[in-house]
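PROTEIN DATA CARD
Card holder: ERCC4 domain-containing protein
Chain length: 1008
Origin: Wickerhamomyces mucosus
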Amino acid sequence: MSLFYYEDSDDEVANEQKIVLNSYSNEENAKDNNDQETVSLSQQQQAEQLKQNKDNDLYPLLPKDEEINEDDLVDHIDPVNVTLSLSLKFQQLILQDLISDNALLIMGKGLGLEPITANLLHVLSAPATTISKVEKKSLVIVLGATDEDNEKINEQLIELSWLDNTQRAFNIIKSDKQDMNKRKSLYQQGGIMSVTSRIFIVDLFAGTVNPQKITGIVILHPEKFNDLSNESFITFIYRQHNKWGFIKALSDSVEDFSSDFNPLEKKLKHLKLSKALLWPRFHIEVTSSLLTKDTKNVTEIKIAMSPAMKQIQIGLWANLKKCIDEVRRENSELAPDYWSIENALDSKFINTFHIIFAPYWHMITFKTKQLIKDIKVLKDLLHFLIYYDCVDFREMMELVTDGNKAKIDKQYPISSLWLDTDEAAAVLNYSQKRVIDESGLVLEENPKWEQLAILLDDISNERAHDSKKSGPVLIMCTDHKVKVQLQNYLSMMKQSKVSRAFSARSLLLKKYQRFRESKTIRNNITKEFKESSSKENEKEKIYLSKAFNRQPVSSKRRRTRGGSAVAAVGRMWSKPSNEGEDLESQITREDLEMELMEVDLNNDEMILSDNDEEMVEIENSILLERDIIIDNYEFIEKENQIIIESYNSDTDDSVLQELSPSFIIMYDADLSFIRRVEIFQAINVDNPSKVYFMYYGDSIEEQRHLLSIRKEKDSFTRLIREKSTMASRYDDEDVSQFKLKKSQVMNTRIAGGSTFQNSSQESIVLVDTREFGAPLPGLLHKIGMRVIPLQLTVGDYILTERVCLERKSIPDLIGSFNSGRLYEQCERMSKYYELPALLIEFDKEESFSLEPFSENRRKKNKMKQVNESIANRDQEDIQQKLALLVLRFPRLRILWSSSPYRTAELILELKAGREEPNILKATAAGSNTSKNDESVDPNNTNELYNLKVLDLIKDVPGGMSQVDMYSIMRKVKTSKELLNLEKSSLIKIVGDEDLADRLYKYLVENYK
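Structure generated from the sequence above:
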């Protein structure tokens, strides 16, 4: 077994180094032919020689030859000519700064982080030294890369290799399918290695890769990592044993860096970096590079929302403000200034509630928890209003209101408090009017749809007069659902014969027909559940503030008509859910089919666009929100192509470069893509694209876009201010490691503690390789323990020959209980170890209580409403399962840890005064599956108790104490031996004649 040994920490390695130094000294003295007495090297000379030995062993590519001087091996160290693909000046300057410093790069969104990363790796992996006419390959490790990052980096490195006519090896390791020997071979070959942090930290601890042979580390997405991330521990280990290699980190998410106090200083400290490079969009070099003569070639199309959409937006916005204000009132001591309606459109707004409330979650009221969910629902409704059609929004409102009616089990009344306001009534009323009113089906189309059709018609006319515009039309939208919606609209829209008006009523008719069918199915299911549910359950009382009480109607006269907002919300709560609205019930399915047929065949007022017959076939076969499969294909000229894509930061650059569109229509606002278009325009100065930017005026869409620009600017401003006042950092800072000796973890209160092995021996912990996704192994190394990764069958952490630890986070514990895996794990631990332990570890940001159990159980279902009684039942269920687990395994101990730091302290306490674990016994435990559980060797400490004995005695009539069970299991090793015992022998074992009599009769009646 190959284990990685660190200098200063192993006696054997130190002795080997002394032998090498002594032989080196003897050879030098023999060459001098001096009769002087041999003098041992001083400590300073030894240190210098050790350093020289390290430097000589960096790249063991060639064998040592005593007759050849090492200086003669090095042919030359010359600058390397490397061809880059960066066209803009500011990108070239960024690359120069990154090459010269171990720095953290933070860029503005969309400014080209991906090509800068690829060019950086291309430069750093270039061989700069030649030994015996063989170019030495560097080893560059890439951490934090996603699958999309790896794909893009690989493509760009291939292109750069073509330019330089040199191949750069790029290997990806993201799973354990490649064994350790194969990974070791890849490391020795050199090149660029993209490795997951979990696998790489295992390779560091196991000695698969030597830090001294790593040229450098490049970290992507450093904003995701903290002091307990594997990336932090990797840089700590790397900088301990390699002072000359580089570490570089690159990010374009500046908002994630400004959420903490002194974030820049902390990030540099965690990643062992010495400098920060800040490149916002307002940087003078960026501005000058992107400022071209066609920069203003952008047409803004400001579209007015319909009156109904405006009223809905006003109502949702007012309710959102009420919910935020109520949360602040309920939690005034914790509420920051950030919780305001001005920041509600921020994408990270909901996360701030969980971050701030997490440590106090067990003390937060049910009302506050429900308000947080209401805020998220209201934000989703605003998103649906802006980006989706009227039928989608109506369906979303139906789901929200149906889910908040009096529940089937009637444990509590309405959950969402905002639905009891006047504004909610107006929202419900206008959402219905967009679809249907007293006159019949309205089916209001999105105002953007018609403007998009008119714009495409203008582009077609412009192409006829400008032959240079030969590229396709690229339409970019917010997500896949909007993309499918636009595809359906453009394929089904019709133009008026007498005007430029466009319409796609057939599309909305089909969607409404599907909505009616799904609503019928939903109502039938609800009716069945109501009939089978119990009628009497205790209701929980919710105390509302005045903000969520509807004001009384000023007039009780009969002038309040059925279509008013007040009447609409009254009908909503009073009607059974299986009854549709009055207006909808008047329109039958046959009416919908008839109108749909009339729209398709009405050629007097509406005409189809080109290729009428083919378009009709597509209409009849189209499946809403599904891919259209067409058997016949034909070539479409590039200038006739209309390509619709959704925003994706991983593919936007490649889309622009591959398509080279002549017209770009941003159907929705996206700050990152706007920057990418700016770069695309600056590179293609000779033939720039014409850009159109569509947005709703005086809407949340406009406000969200302006807010994203302001937040990025403010975040860069704070980081620039911090950088100007930040003290300088050095590479040697904070890389010292505690060296815990056996004497330092010795507990003198335990007798015999001084009789163990040499007190200078390091404290060792055996860790299962699957545990390296958690921060605990790296934390144990940082406090001075030697962490040895192994493939363990029993337990996660082997602390001593007697103590085995199974670590569970809250989600893991719930999943293990549900799957039954935890029972099997505890059974194996109890079989092979005398002191098995289950460690339940909380996140350091969570409340140290039973509250996270109930919250994590429903985390996957984000729309599920909060219910305090259900949460209490979940907590009781977990407690019952833990109690049954302890009763089933009497020797199992449950340890509770509030954070990984506390877990490290517990492990130190458990190891105090005890022997070190045995690697061979730990790996052998549980590996022999063919071994018979009945044959237990009393002298074998790996099999201490036979659990089948417990299965025989646990159901004895009258019950049995845990002490008696433990005594029987300790003295009786097999079930066969227990069945052969006489009554007198049982009395001697348990010391209770009555218990022995009951046990003897039970065994005779059931097993003999």
